Amino acid sequence: MIGTVTDLLRIPHVFAKNCEHLAAHALGRVVTDSREAKQGDVFVAFRGARVDAHDFVAELCARGVLLCVVENRWYRKHAAEITELPLLVVRDTMRAYGDIARLHRERFTVPVLAVTGSNGKTTTKEMIAAVLRTKYRVLQNAGNFNNHIGLPATLLELTDAHDVVVAEMGTNQPGDIAYLCTIAQPTHGLITNIGRAHIEKLRSREGIAQEKAALFAALSPQDLALVNADEPLLRGTVPRGVRRITYGTRAGSDIRITDVTLDRAGRARVRIEAPRFVRRPVMLRLQAVGRHAAYNAAAALAAGFAFGCGIRAMKRAVEHVASYDKRMQISDAAGITVINDTYNANPDSVLAALDLLQQLDIPGRRCVVLGDMLELGTVSRQEHEAIGAALVAADIPYVMTYGTRSRAISSAARSMAAVSRHFTDKQRLVDELAALLDAGDAVLIKGSRSMKMEEIVDGFLRRSTSEEERA
Q1: Which residues, 6+ apart, have CB-to-CB distance to 55 below 8 Å?
Q2: What is the pLDDT of residue 467?
Q3: Statement: the pTM of the whole predicted model exceeds 0.70
Q4: Disulfide engineering: 309 pairs with which of 111, 256, 304, 367, CB 3.0-4.6 Å?
């Protein structure tokens, strides 16, 4: 951890109470879950939508927690009741948690490779970590721990046993990436692409690009930017003096994707040329599905070359990374191919998933089940209608939608689809989907995270399994 209580007091705070006798005390863990707090820990109290962790402060101090970090407005309200507790009083405990992680990160000279972008962040992070692990001891975010809580939690796990950090960064409003960079202090930055995710608060693709480009802006001279050469909105965003490696399909890219095909299961087969680093083209047989997986792999190779990893080991590592949880996961349900891409949705990721559905080698019919795409603001209806138009252009015969905004998708697709239905009840949708599809068909199921479209996947898989067993 960051050292002693005296070190902890270096973060911005209002005042410390009953901490004098703890000044030289070595710090252990910093925790935010009261259920995990143990004797000697520092507990940071967050105010949640349903639970205010400040309610547990007195109990935790009685159980031996070293001290608690609490918000000033809570302290003023309860000061008379907690006169003996060891407290560090701050204006905002979320910010304080980030400040603690920043102090901890500053104790290490370890390189930090930060990954952000509209789509593909997590898979790219997983591939990069797999590549770097062929040579180094890597600390990476668990899952999508990429926000104001997840990133600090990851950095607080950093020890002398790690050689490099791979840190995913997410955003949904202006300033998020710049703030996360003050905590992580990246030495390497990668922006996967600029899509239309979170356009409600970031206003436009240009606004999204500006937000994401804060990662490159945080790099110092002689740091390294890994640049998607195919993303025009990223051109000119790398500061002067920052080194760069480019990847993409454009001629002149340092890591150039020259061919992408999909096998019968949708897995990408990729040919890459990187004459700056290796003489011969690299042929990759990925477990990850979809054409966009080629970009994830190219980015991972760019990172590997930057860190001096061997190409054979990198190739093996990238080829073993499968599609991440609820991201382009393909399964079989009694002969029906199910694409579970329910982790999240925005217009660009829906179109990418639709491309995969079209590329699958199946004997039967294709179906899409789409939930609402959220955080699109004033262009929400327009973007949902555009997805409906894309389904018409792709000649998708079966379209089912769930939610409120997605009704515009099924309405727009109704002119050409053999079946175009909107639902407000997931069980009814599952029932009709099961009645509609036969062995040999394929279905794509996708929607924004809060729509919980995986419940439709789970319901359909259970239904198909039970019917197969009865047969």
Answers
A1: none
A2: 59
A3: yes
A4: 304
